[in-house]
Specification:
Elements lengths: L7 E5 L4 H12 L3 E6 L2 H11 L2 E4 L5 H15 L4 E4 L10 E3 L6 E3 L2 H26 L11 E6 L3 H4 L5 H21 L4 E8 L5 H4 L3 H9 L10 H13 L7 E4 L9
Parallel strand pairs: 1-2, 1-4, 2-3, 4-7, 7-8, 8-9
Antiparallel strand pairs: 5-6
Helix pairs in contact: 1-9, 3-4, 4-6
């Protein structure tokens, strides 16, 4: 894909972390970037810094997503790029016994569904609506109309204890990548997914240094947390390289997650 100031992009979860790094990388190429997020202050700050637009967006809500796409397209025109970084997680065992009184409880289904709705359904909601818009675009030279990059996790393949919901949601993102790429192939729209390992994002910013060091030590090489810029570099490769399609790629320093 040719990237310049005629191209528009949407980055969900673009107010911080992996999304913000990708938004900055796209803007550096001249791309007009819309940041979809619920973090208004941070989102507006990133948007102002890169000459983009902030669109408040809850990926679990149809009306919110529709309004965000409408605002982004009014500002920049139809997006040719969608990067899905919005997501969250929790840590709850499938069933467990209390150490205090021996009582037994199971994973609350509303908590399970909440993760699925954000990470999996929310991702697909944005893909379907964005792809429908991309179909209205004229192809670039070579026949490409658009590129979609999703964010899964290494937990899709080796989830830890307490990650049943998170792993299921991210495994779903991996599982739908190829079918979506096949659905959209004849229209010149590509779809790929990144499976990040342990990255230095706001989620870990408040962790004690000994916890951060312990996490870094589990990485095969290099023994450190991933830099969001490294995620952005792979996302940019998936976007710019027209032969990159239908792939799920781990970006994790060779880590294989332990059971806990």
């Amino acid at each position: 894909m040719i990237l310049d100031n005629t191209v528009a992009a949407v980055v969900t979860g673009g107010a911080s972390g992996l999304g913000a790094a990708t938004a900055r990388a796209l803007a550096a190429k001249g791309v007009k970037v819309a940041i979809f997020d619920l973090q208004e202050e941070k989102g507006k700050a990133v948007a102002a810094d890169i000459g983009g637009v902030f669109c408040e967006c809850n990926v679990t809500d149809d009306a919110s997503v529709d309004a965000a796409f409408a605002k982004a397209r009014e500002a920049h025109g139809q997006e040719r790029i969608l990067v899905n970084c919005a997501g969250t997680g929790n840590a709850i065992k499938t069933a467990s016994r209390s150490k205090e009184d021996g009582s037994i409880k199971h994973f609350p289904l509303d908590a399970f569904n909440w993760i699925i709705q954000i990470n999996l359904v929310g991702t697909f909601r944005c893909i379907a609506k964005s792809a429908a818009g991309m179909l209205t675009l004229e192809p670039q030279e070579g026949g490409g109309r658009g590129a979609i990059v999703n964010t899964a996790s290494v937990a899709a393949e080796d989830g830890q204890m307490g990650q049943a919901a998170y792993s299921a949601s991210k495994g779903g993102v991996v599982g739908m990548t190829l079918p979506i790429a096949r659905d959209l192939a004849s229209e010149g729209i590509r779809c790929n997914t990144i499976l990040p390992g342990i990255f230095d994002t706001p989620l870990l910013a408040g962790a004690p240094q000994n916890v951060r060091d312990a996490l870094a030590a589990t990485v095969l090489n290099p023994k450190r947390l991933g830099n969001p810029v490294e995620y952005a570099n792979l996302a940019m490769c998936m976007i710019e390289n027209d032969y990159f399609n239908g792939e799920d790629v781990r970006l994790d320093g060779g880590i294989r997650m332990a059971p806990r």
